[in-house]
Amino acid sequence: MSDILLSVKNLQSYYGDFQALHGITLELKKGQVLSLIGANGAGKSTLLKSICGLVRKKTGDVKWKGDDIITLPASEIVKRGIALVPEGRRLFPSLSVDENLRLGGHVARLGPWSLSSVYNLFPILREKRNAPSTSLSGGQQQMVAIGRALMSNPELILLDELSLGLAPIIIKDIYDQLPLITAGGMSAIIVEQDVTRALSAASHFFCIQEGRVSLQGAPKSYTRDQISKAYFGT
Amino acid sequence: MDWINAIVQGVLVGGLYAMFAAGLSLIFGVMRLVNIAHGDLIILASYLAWAVVGATGVHPLLALLAVVPVMGSLGYALQSFILNRTLGKDILPPLLVTFGLSVILQNGLLQFFTADSRKLNAGLLEISSFNVVQGIDIGYLPLLMFMTAVAIIAGLQYMFYNTATGRAFRATSDEPEIAQLMGLDNKQVYAKAMALCLGIVAIAGVFLAIRSNFDPFMGPGRLIFGFEAVIIGGLGNLWGTLVGGVILGVAQGLGAQIDPGYQILAGHVAFLIVLAFRPTGLFPRIAG
After folding, report:
1. Interchain contact A74–B (C-beta under 8 A)
2. According to the 3-state scheme, what is the secondary structure of A26-71?
3. Is residue A220 within 8 Å of residue A33, measured between CB atoms?
4. For A109, which residue in chain B has the nearest alpha carbon?
């Protein structure tokens, strides 16, 4: 089973005493794009943060290319090829666009992504390269956040709520670029509130409800009703 | 002419205060840590230099070659083994721990070096000066001190805005959690910043020891001068810190001109005036 990139088994994550994930199990193959859907507070972001090492208090099994990574800190996990685009973008406000991207390349992994390829993907950023990152519009900031993650040349990119607070037309623009990003064989896990968007972008989805997987499979194999039941838990 | 001279000498002494302040400003900027032991670390550096000079007989400025790396390594270790454990959401633990460290340092210095006040002898450098105009002489030592402060501030400024290390410092200060996603180990970034801070502290400590007598209990006073310079200049602005040091030095010089007993008081009054009318300092960091 060498094409399994990421394997999560019975993952339980905690914020202090609060248990946010109750035994999540999922597998991701090389080049696969997965969607995570679920209501607010279901644990989608927690799952991403647990995979990339930002949530440290957790038990279970997280294997990356067969290696156990559950105990590694975030700064080590990114070196192995997992990058997160965090919810709310979280750019470095005192750094310019260019500096944000360069810092993303601090982990100098080999691969197709560089300053120039990121600027080719999002040409508007090249014009604003020396602007403070906070002076950009929300959509442009999201592009910087994606570019910053790409700069580490990850094999898996975790995208948390790309559409949050953005105008629909901008969201469409950003999602239109996704196939270009995954074209080189990069895997992705997409967390999205917009279920239609999430299901159309991925070959496989997981619905999470109160820290547990309530439904999973190919989007086509379920009806709208089944998915909405798994989503809301009614 | 006496008044102009007081101002000129005050400006030069301000360089020393800016050196006290630069490290404080750096550490607060990078990790929001207020180091109460900062002044005592300056005095520790003074004693280290005194010990090096005593053992080898070299010129005090040459002792910097030993004192700067020793203090820098000490900073890295101090941050790695102690201070990193105190950092978190609560601002109280680092305050308490550095306060404790301050007490330990003072008493440790007292134990090892006794309460006798010491001074480093820099020979000719201390007593030579050149005449600018009638009534105003500039000493080579104060001038060197001031130039060193300018060089340190310029170097820090360059490092912060033009190097990968500076970028890491700013990013970690902005978003410590996200910085880890870039592959930065925050604890290591903090340790590097503290090493740099104590390297600057070492230089300040040696100049202090050449300029005046020192004893184990002088640290807290230097800490106050450093704080005042940082606040007057505006938090997070390095050139502002230099101006803050100069204003403090000039105020003290003018105070001493009125009456030698007013020297320290005048500095504090200048600080209070700034705090009352410009609580964010004269040159606050421009937001965003």
Report:
1. yes
2. EEEECCCEEEEECCCCCCHHHHHHHHHCCCCCEEEEEEECCEECCC
3. no
4. B183
Residue type present at position A54: L
* Separation CA B73–CA B57 (nearest Å): 23
Average pLDDT over residues A57-83: 94
- Antiparallel, parallel or unpaired: β A156-160 and A187-191: parallel
Whether A207 contacts A214, CB under 8 Å? yes
* Residue B285, CA distances (Å) to A173, B53, B235, B240, B272 in order: 36, 40, 7, 9, 20
State mean pLDDT over B172-193.
96
Question: Residue A2's pLDDT is what?
Answer: 62
B196 touches B158 (CB < 8 A) = no
Render pLDDT for B79-114 as a digit per residue (tens, 0 to 9).
999 999 999 888 899 999 999 999 999 999 999 999
Say whether residue A83 is in contact with chain B using an 8 A CB cutoff: yes
DSSP track, A100-143:
HHHHHTTS---SS--HHHHHHHSHHHHHTTTSBGGGS-HHHHHH
Q: Among residues 112-171 of chain B, which lie with CB inside 8 Å of chain A?
A: 164, 167-168, 170-171
Q: Do B178 and A86 touch (CB under 8 A)?
A: yes
Residue B287 pLDDT exceeds 60? no
pTM: 0.92
Find tokens 């000493």 and name the residue.
Answer: B139
Interface confidence: ipTM more than 0.85: yes
In A, which residues are within 8 Å of B185 by CB distance?
73, 75
Query: In chain A, whose CA is at the least distance from the CA of B170?
Result: A94
pLDDT in tens, A176-228: 888 889 888 899 999 988 888 888 888 899 999 999 998 998 888 888 888 88
End-to-end Cα distance, chain B: 45
Cα separation of B20 and B42, whole Å? 8
What is the per-residue pLDDT across B215-265, written as a single tens digit (0 to 9) for each? 999 999 999 999 999 999 988 789 999 999 999 999 999 999 999 999 999
